[in-house]
Amino acid sequence: LCPCLIYGAYVFLPFDAPLLPTISARLVYTLRCAAFATFPVVLGVIVSGISRLCSSALEPFGELHREVEIHRTYVSQSVHLFILYFFNMAVLATYLPQDLLKLIPLLTGLFAISRLIFWMSYAIGRSFRAFGFSMTFLPLLAMLLWNLYGMFVLEPENLLA
């Protein structure tokens, strides 16, 4: 489903990436796009704090309620996946040709939407969260494989440069 969503958005959404000739400009563009990917994480922190205040789980070492535990686990996993996403996206931006830089905001949007889908499905039940997690993890895995391909096959002479 992820490749179909990315391809459909790439073809049908009417925007193009700006001209980014240098690596530093590409990294700044990636950093700006990654700021939007923090939205689900920040929203999770806010909801987690509100749920902790509204529940009787104000004791720091006490037993957490299920609602508080769901939000806490979501925020923790989202921070870890965001770090992996951001570093893969930064490396990906250096290897992509100019005409494919449109993928950077599209992958950012997919990350944010898939984290929100994971959060909603995790709140429904733990058995439903696989769809949202796979929409987050599989594009991240594809980015990692493309980055390794770019480092070791496309430009092996610049691996340590």
UniProtKB/TrEMBL annotation:
Cellular compartments per GO CC: lysosomal membrane; trans-Golgi network membrane
Residues that span the membrane, as ranges: 29-53, 74-97, 103-124, 131-152
Annotated GO biological process: regulated exocytosis
Highest taxon above the source species: Eukaryota
Protein name (record): TMM79 protein
Natural source organism: Eulacestoma nigropectus
Keyword terms of this UniProt record: Membrane, Transmembrane, Transmembrane helix
